[in-house]
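As a representative case, the lines below give one protein's residues and fold tokens.
***
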Amino acid sequence: MTAVTSFETVAAAFWDSGETELTQPPLTAAMVTAAEAGLGVRLPAGLIQLLRLRNGGIVADAWDACPAAPNSWAADHVPFDHLHGIAPPGRELSMALQDTGYLVREWGLPSPVVLLSGDGHTWVALDYRDCGPDGDPPVVYLDADLGQELRVAHDFRTFVESLTPSADFPDD
């Protein structure tokens, strides 16, 4: 369960085969520029690489969990079943990375973060608090209800390389 897979291997099979309402239009350089300006941060290159393959949606079952210390979700992992994409400029509250500001205020989450995935109560996020807006942020798991924060990876690339099937974890 703790084996590391290369980023390229994960990226090649990262997305589930179906598109959903989470899938945004194909990513353009202008969309990335606008999103980074709106969020006030530089997004990790690996994230942009995945979003160029498909701009948000359901993650393949092979990569839908990240091993982690005990937390409110499970004793040994956090969920990662979808990844928000980047919406075109002008789209508000469209299940995209740019919804972060609204959601951080709504759920009382720390800032600055960029929410990658979540359901309102729990989130997987890039945490820019220590590295600054141009840094390489760690990936954290946030539980809004319990006020719990847990670092799950040193950076986005390490996070992706750590992903594994949730089916590999025993039921708690």
Notes: Residues 11 and 50 are 6 Å apart (CA to CA). The mean pLDDT is 94. Helices lie at 7-12, 29-39, 45-53, 100-107, 156-162.
